[in-house]
Amino acid sequence: MQDQTTAGNLLRTMRANSPLVQCITNFVAMNIAANVMLAAGASPAMVHAEEEAGEFAAISGALTINIGTLSSGWLAGMLKAARSANNAGKPWVLDPVAHYATAFRRKAVAQLLELQPTIIRGNASEIIALAGGTSRGQGVDSRDAVEQAEDSARLLAEKHGCIVAVTGVTDFVTDGQKAKRIAGGSPFMPQVTALGCSLTCLVGAFAAATTNAPFEATVAALAVFAVAGTQAGAAADGPGSFSWRFLDALASLTPEVLDREARVTVA
Ligand SMILES: Nc1ncnc2c1ncn2[C@@H]1O[C@H](COP(=O)(O)OP(=O)(O)OP(=O)(O)O)[C@@H](O)[C@H]1O
Ligand SMILES: Cc1ncsc1CCO
Ligand SMILES: [Mg+2]
After folding, report:
1. Which of 13, 65, 234, 254 is 20 to 30 Å from 42 at the Cα level?
2. What is the pLDDT, as a whole number, of residue 1?
3. Which helix (H) or strand (E) holds 104?
């Protein structure tokens, strides 16, 4: 029987469903993340107000929460949305941007972790710090290698019963037991702000479009970024032209090309 969980097949399913994803992201990421989602074939809605975030999570296919530009009002909306997603049986993804930087962020992430995210996606410095290690992260930017975060990712996944994705030069995804690496992308990617935040939203779209396969959904979303990133990077002159080329590459990526070009290996 054909494997329904290859990245290409999951991309086909995701586009066919065009899942509504509630993206509680940050002021920096909102526009690029929505454009990335639309280019890839998902349906994003940036809804974060405390007054409506919980209600909206119940009608969304998935929820993503990113603490990049946190404030107390937004945090209240995040907590309501995560509780509502849990009650409705919807997957939700946590992006713990620079959670190590301030006491406010550390406390917020601890509260969000208690609500048991389905998937955590962060850069290496964020994942190392989240597992209690000493990271070299500076603000929102990683200064650690993905390889150094792999043990932390496994630990976190075991502890919280979730999928953990670490992104960087070569990405790493684990459920605490099995793990995969996804190679590809472009050195221009960390030079364009909020692509990681956008990827978190896309992970939500793939999680919404799959049933009980958050590990495969995460690998597929990361593979889409890796292949489209490689294609855009090959033609780009710098981060500016990379940015628009990346949106075009996401939109024109076919499931067949994705399965052919994706460099996914068992870790
Ligand atoms: N040097 C690199 N080479 C290839 N791909 C990269 C590189 N650095 C990051 N990427 C890719 O860029 C995407 C975003 O990951 P990254 O780890 O930069 O997120 P992030 O640090 O959370 O970003 P941000 O906080 O700006 O949103 C992923 O698809 C990742 O594989
Ligand atoms: C630059 C920046 N500052 C807060 S969030 C964000 C987007 C990248 O994480
Ligand atoms: Mg980030």
Report:
1. 234
2. 61
3. helix 103-114
Over range 169-175, report the average pLDDT.
Answer: 98
Beta carbons of 172 and 146 less than 8 angstroms apart: yes
Q: Residues forming the annotated binding site for ATP?
A: 121, 167
* Binding site membership of 42 for ligand 2 (Cβ less than 6 Å): no
The one-character DSSP state at 115 is: T
CA atoms of 26 and 248, how far apart (whole Å) = 23
Q: Tell me the CATH number for domain 7-266.
A: 3.40.1190.20
CB 113 within 8 A of CB 157: no
What is the SS3 assignment for 187? coil
Over pLDDT 90: what percentage of the chain?
98
Is the complex ipTM higher than 0.95?
A: yes
- Spell out the domain ranges in the chain: 7-266
pLDDT tens digit sequence for 225-252: 999 999 999 999 999 999 999 999 999 9
Q: From 93, 167, 202, give the residue whose CB has the most ligand 1 atoms within 8 Å, as the site to mutate.
A: 167
